Structure formats: C-alpha cells, structure tokens
Amino acid sequence: MIGFLKGRLFSKQPPHLVVDVNGVGYELEAPMSTFYGLPGTGEAVALFTHLVVREDAHILFAFGTDGERRLFRALIKISGVGPKIALGILSGSSVEDFLRTIEAEDSAALTRIPGIGRKTAERIVIEMRDGAKKLAAGQTGAESAPAFAGAATAQSEAFGALSALGYKPPEAMRLLKAVDEPGLSTTELIRRALKAAAKSR
Q: Beta strand pairing status for 44-53 and 4-13?
C-alpha cells in the first residue's frame, strides 16, 4: 500500500492530478477539499494516499490531510458508497461540516450530493454515527483555497470537475453560469458552484 507521496506537482485538472516523484509521475484523483489547498504546478507537494484495486484498474486517491483520508476510508466501507460518492462528499463539504451533519443526523443534507439517495443517506448517518467522534479527534482544520488556474480554461476545467463528481452537464452548466465572475480560478468556480448546489436543493 502506498501511504503518501512527496514530490512536485506536475499537473492538475480536477479531480485529476499528477505528482512527479523523482522522475516518476503518479496519476491521482482527489476531492475538491484537497484541490483547494494545492500549491502551483512545479512546486513541492506532499499528499496522503489510498489505493483502490478493481478488476479493471488500480486507482490512487490523494488527500491533503489524514482526516480526509480517514473519512474516505470510512465512507467506502459503507454499502452503496463507492470512491466516487466518497469524493463527492469530501468535495461538497469539509470533514468538520460532514461530521456535524452526522451528529445532527441530517440525512436530507447528504441527498444534495450527486449519487446519494434517501436510503443511502440514512445508511451513511446510521453507520457513521459511532465513528464520527473518532474521526473528529484527528482533525487539523479546514483547507483554504488559493487561486492558481488560468482564467481561459477555468470554466472548462470546472465543468469537467463537476461532471466527474456526478453532476449532469445541464446542471453543471447552470451552476457555473450562476456563479461565474471574470478572473475566478477553477477552484473558486467549483467551490462557489458546490455551495450553490447545496443551497438550491
């Protein structure tokens, strides 16, 4: 198992990124909570990782904090919750906000995330209830969102990220049009779109 990677950020296009570790490029998928804290391309980066082995692929997931990774690992153990839904949860809220949702037993809030229906949301609340305090104990705080992406590709990259998180193309376009302003980075566009999606449901 690969526990972490330390190298230079070669490329990033949510939810995918490549880290150059001594000349070897590792392809990873990461939640938006991790993207918000990434440095610029070419700069040093250290990420926690989790390897998912499937019959057709080995996928390496990256996380900015160990708390994100622990939550991801807890979520994918739940029936009906795969890596894609787990990434969607981490992209739509911080670990702290998610744990507060579990403590409040607010399953309705979870149904705002693409791919999560009422039954799955209720299952997540029930199965995460006991582990929420353990996860909360190791938290180091929320990530900030530095702006790095070029404005020319920000819209298309944000659209690709929302699509990868499970939003249908018309919905992704609607969300992006509602929050777009000149000069916004990809990460800020996605952050605003996810906030708008949470409020509109």
A: antiparallel
Fold of 4-63: OB fold (Dihydrolipoamide Acetyltransferase, E2P) (2.40.50)
Whole-angstrom Cα distance, residue 75 to residue 109? 16
| Other Cβ atoms within 10 Å of 107 Cβ, number | 19
- Residue 124 CB partners (closer than 8 Å, separation 6+): 75, 78, 81, 102, 107, 110, 116
Distance CA 87, CA 190 (A): 14
Is residue 134 predicted with pLDDT exceeding 80?
A: no
Assess if CATH 1.10.150.20 describes domain 66-137: yes
Please determine, looking at this structure, whether the domain spanning 151-200 carries the CATH number 3.90.10.10: no
Least-confidence region, from 36-45, 72-81, 124-133, 135-144: 135-144
Reported pTM: 0.68
